[in-house]
TrEMBL record:
This is Alcohol dehydrogenase, propanol-preferring. PANTHER family: L-THREONINE 3-DEHYDROGENASE (PTHR43401:SF2). Belongs to the zinc-containing alcohol dehydrogenase family. Keywords: Metal-binding, Oxidoreductase, Zinc. SUPFAM superfamilies: GroES-like, NAD(P)-binding Rossmann-fold domains.
Length: 347
């Protein structure tokens, strides 16, 4: 396919990306050309623009949370057909390293992420390996399908890592685009009593409106004590979606004995745990990281949403055309805009 298309391109770190015209890419062997219909702007895109996360090269087309329609198939692809509605796992694994061979594709030694390692999906068209493309059920619209591939799949993976069981208690630190979905999955799928914690009033209001059973403002310096009191001794699992060493420490300290703290927030600082070593042992606490998601997480979520077992209300808070990317970026940066997930669309 020839011709030009629109693409949101980052040219240099520290400067917002701009909408430019570039050639439509050709799918290579084993790849698929997707016509983008929706692609969320992730909080991590802000880190890429600021430069705290580096891209493999510049310029780079942004965007790693897409849904769309299969437009063309590269050589050797027979698992998909043109015109098919799909979502895309934006974590492109090599498929052959030791970790990939053990099924841990999210930990691939040569992991290449859309919009970071290879051109992303904030464009009219983009290419990905066929193995990253998953059919989208008709019951799910393109914007929701898009955010399932990251904003909902990332907390799903973290929840599965936590080993949480039905009827337990959980603290969710950070109620932005990831944490709010974690709270909703925990309540709807695991009947977990959730305490949502954030410093941002708009995020707390969103959480209340979306049915999170209990919310606590983290500016209240008694937050750990409050969690312990409310759960009669501490939560079974805590989730860190903030990206702060201090919050990791809070997560550990609000656990009951045998509890697990899962960290999905990213920050380059070293952990400095206030917790005593003897407490870690005496309470048999577990601290673990959780990176991204797998095709299985996305496939399971698509099934759960299409059959009505999971519903996320209006967490797609903004849908904007590709031409309006800058408005979406500004909304995400504005603390009082109540933006949960901003999704860019194209026809
Ligand atoms: Zn993301
Ligand atoms: Zn690999």
């Amino acid at each position: 396919m020839q011709g030009l298309m629109r693409a949101v391109r980052l040219d240099s770190v520290g400067v917002d990306p701009s909408l430019v015209e570039v050639p439509v890419p050709e799918p290579g062997g084993g790849e698929v050309l997707i016509a983008m219909r929706a692609c969320g702007i992730c909080g991590s895109d802000l880190h890429v623009i600021e430069g705290s996360t580096r891209t493999a090269h510049l310029p780079m087309t942004m965007g790693h949370e897409p849904s769309g329609v299969v437009h063309a198939l590269g050589a050797g692809v027979d698992s998909l057909s043109t015109g098919q509605r799909v979502v895309v796992n934006g974590l492109v694994a090599c498929g052959s390293c030791g970790l990939c061979r053990h099924g841990k594709l999210n930990l691939c030694e040569r992991l290449s992420i859309l919009g970071l390692g290879r051109d992303g999906a904030h464009a009219d068209y983009f290419t990905v390996p066929a193995g990253n493309v998953i059919p989208l059920p008709d019951e799910i619209d393109f914007p929701l399908g898009a955010i399932i591939t990251d904003a909902i799949a990332t907390p799903m993976h973290a929840i599965r890592k936590s080993g949480v069981q039905e009827g337990q208690t959980a603290a969710v630190f950070g109620l932005g685009g990831l944490g709010i979905h974690a709270a909703m999955i925990l309540q709807q799928l695991y009947q977990v009593e959730v305490i949502g914690i954030d410093v941002d009033d708009a995020a707390l209001a969103n959480a209340r409106r979306l049915g999170v059973s209990s919310v606590v403002n983290a500016r209240d310096d008694q937050v750990i004590q409050r969690v312990r009191e409310q759960t009669r001794g501490g939560v079974d699992v805590a989730f860190e979606f903030v990206g702060s060493a201090a919050v990791v420490d809070q997560g550990l300290r609000c656990l009951r004995p045998g509890g697990t703290c899962v960290v999905a927030g990213v920050h380059p600082n070293r952990l400095e745990l206030g917790l005593r070593q003897e407490t870690l042992v005496a309470r048999e606490l577990t601290l673990t990281g959780s990176l991204g998601f797998t095709n299985e997480d996305i496939t399971d979520l698509l099934r759960l949403v299409s059959t009505g077992q999971l519903a996320f209300g209006d967490t797609v808070s903004h849908t904007l055309d590709l031409d309006e990317y800058q408005i979406g970026l500004d909304a995400l940066r504005q603390p009082d805009s109540a933006a949960i997930r901003v999704v860019i669309t194209a026809e």
